[in-house]
Amino acid sequence: MSLWRQGSGRPLVFLHPGDGVDGTLPLMNRLAETYQVFAPSHPGFGGSDLPANYTTVDDLAYFYLDFLKQNAIADAVLVGVSFGAWIAAEIAVKCTHRIAGLVLADALGAKFGDPLTREIADLFSVPQYDLGRLLFADGHKLDYSDQTDEALLRLARNHASFGLFGWSPTLHNPKLGRRPAPDRRADLAAVGEQDRVVPPDYGRRFAAAIPGAQFQLIEGAGHYPQQEQPERFIAAIDAFVATLPPVAG
Q1: Is the per-residue pLDDT at 88 higher than 60?
Q2: DSSP track, 51-75
């Protein structure tokens, strides 16, 4: 698998959104000043292989449980953004043995309302060049004119895999919101104040579904606070981690 790893301190596993890990690398470098950061590319994304039997987010969740064990990661902070937060939530309802804290930023994945009410914007129905109006607070258009062919091919692969895992039902697992809340010591659900993919009320409902979870709005951010407001995003993570018990000796 493709894995970016750097830093020292408490382990922090970062699960990227649907367009891959590349756009988060400046954030990773900042986090690595404080944490031992593991930023894998999900199976089928970036340079990671896609096993033929991987078709659901459940498959990814079990993959990451094995990843934590194989890398002897313990007392970790699991940080997921958007699609990555959906994966993180699916991991947490299965097993939290190696996870000290869970940060769900602008999470997809759950259904709280009735079947006829759309709670998550359909990212698959919007042309790629126009996604910026949903993803970012300022609604700017995405510009790929300066991208290399290699970067564009990688992005296309990421989008194809995102479609595979999130297509039907669209960007959620109908069972996730009904599964038992993770038996954990602490959780944080954060949402960009101007998120147009999952609005703040959806984030509040996500937090309310996890007993004791904190909820935080990130000002000046849309769906990708890690890119638009990285310092505020890191400050939210740091403040949350400060509430966790120290790493076991």
Answers
A1: yes
A2: -TT--SHHHHHHHHHHHHHHTT--S
Residue 182 has pLDDT above 70, yes or no: no
- Between 128 and 85, where is the model more confident? 85
> Using a CB cutoff of 8 Å and minimum separation of 24, what contacts does 6-10 make?
6/32, 6/36, 6/37, 7/31, 7/32, 7/33, 7/34, 7/35, 7/36, 7/37, 8/35, 8/36, 9/34, 9/35, 9/36, 10/35, 10/36, 10/75, 10/76, 10/77, 10/100, 10/241, 10/247
Q: What percent of the chain has pLDDT over 90?
A: 80
Q: Is 156 exposed, middle or buried (0-12, 13-18, 19+ CB in 10 A)?
A: exposed
Peptide bond into 182 cis (omega under 30): no
Give DSSP secondary structure letters for 114-168.
-TTS--S--GGGS-GGGTHHHHSTT-PPP--TT--HHHHHHHHHHHHHHHHHHTT
Higher local confidence (pLDDT), 25 or 193: 193
Q: Give the Cα separation of 103 and 114 in Å (integer).
A: 26
Strand 187-192 with 99-105, pairing: parallel
Instruction: For domain 3-241, give the fold.
Output: Rossmann fold (3.40.50)
pTM: 0.96
- Radius of gyration of the chain, Cα coordinates, nearest whole angstrom: 17
**Residue 133 pLDDT greater than 60, yes or no:** yes
What are the residue boundaries of the structural domains of the chain, listed by start? 3-241
